[in-house]
Design goal:
globular, mainly alpha, single chain, 324 residues
Length: 324
């Protein structure tokens, strides 16, 4: 149980750092890593403490119970413990992937989960791509006027507040992916262990400046400027809020984020009349890595879960019958 939790704690935060603190790290590269860590880490500790106090030891804001995980696993399939290791390898290869699907789906007992998660994730990518494309192709010139010269202190404050809100939303949504390995009600010792392991893991990520997957953010245009980074985070938060109210089906928020980055990049280049060759390569590379990561996560989740394996077999049979 604790081995699986520790592996999941680091690998989930490391992979999802691209969408939660990626632009925060890029636009604050001039600041000491431990200052950024203490800011983000304090928000994490405060958020999970609120959940632990309000929900009788549950650190997932009751999202595990709402998704059918009201009881902790009585035993573990070896692939359920190995899933975080696969996620860590995927992260080192710079493949953004749904930690919800890879970690949580290995334990699911709800039918239809595979199709619903995939459908919502793909919808999220395209919606984020289109919204970002429209915003930046229409407002790029206005933003360039706003962003002239050095960023003022008010922009820095706004960006830190926006990043803090985004990080809080990630904890509320995705802490369940890590806590799924643990009892649903943690005592004080278990809660301290849970908090400390993730807090120290965050420190390592900041020390490594986002590690390998941070390059997915860094290679995009102007993300080192605090003002564009703030707008990216703000649009992303609004899209996440929208999907939160659509339904409670888990989705790959990482796919939403790379859709946002891709749509923004295309809108910027078209608006400025620049060549699109490099842009299409970046978008294609992000999609390729995301798809490859998704395929790997499907293989792991299906192999570890009998219900998902039956669903996939039924889906393949249905498609085969239609083709025949």
């Amino acid at each position: 149980m604790w081995i699986g939790f520790c592996l999941a704690a680091y690998s989930a935060v490391a992979n999802d750092s691209i969408q939660t603190i990626g632009t925060f790290i890029s636009s604050n590269a001039d600041k000491k890593w431990w200052v950024l860590w203490l800011f983000i880490g304090t928000i994490f500790l405060a958020t999970v403490t609120v959940s632990w106090v309000l929900y009788d030891g549950d650190v997932s804001f009751q999202r595990l119970a709402s998704k059918g995980f009201s009881q902790a696993p009585a035993s573990f399939h070896f692939l359920q413990i190995s899933a975080p290791i696969f996620l860590l390898v995927i992260t080192k290869l710079r493949m953004p992937v749904s930690t919800t699907f890879l970690l949580l789906s290995s334990f699911t007992t709800a039918s239809g989960a595979l199709t619903e998660v995939l459908t919502k994730s793909i919808m999220g990518y395209f919606l984020a791509f289109i919204v970002a494309f429209m915003i930046w192709i229409l407002l790029d010139k206005i933003m360039k006027t706003w962003f002239h010269g050095k960023a003022g202190t008010h922009w820095i404050i706004f960006q830190w507040v926006t990043s803090g809100v985004l990080w809080t939303f990630w904890i509320v949504q995705d802490a369940a992916n890590i806590a799924v390995f643990l009892p649903r009600s943690l005592n004080i010792q278990q809660f301290l262990a849970f908090s400390l392991v993730i807090f120290l893991g965050q420190g390592l990520i900041f020390y490594l400046k986002g590690d390998k997957i941070q390059k997915v953010v860094n290679e995009k245009s102007e993300v080192s400027d605090v003002r564009p980074a703030t707008i990216i985070d703000l649009v992303y938060v609004l899209i996440l809020i929208l999907f939160t109210y659509v339904n409670t089906v888990p989705m790959s928020t990482t796919w939403v984020f790379i859709g946002l980055l891709g749509g923004r990049e295309l809108g910027l280049k078209l608006r400025r009349g620049e060549t699109l060759t490099k842009t299409w390569k970046l978008i294609g590379k992000d999609i390729y890595y995301a798809l490859l990561g998704l395929i790997i996560s499907i293989i792991v989740a299906v192999s570890a879960n009998d219900l998902l394996r039956s669903e996939l077999a039924g889906l393949i049979k249905s498609l085969t019958d239609k083709l025949i």
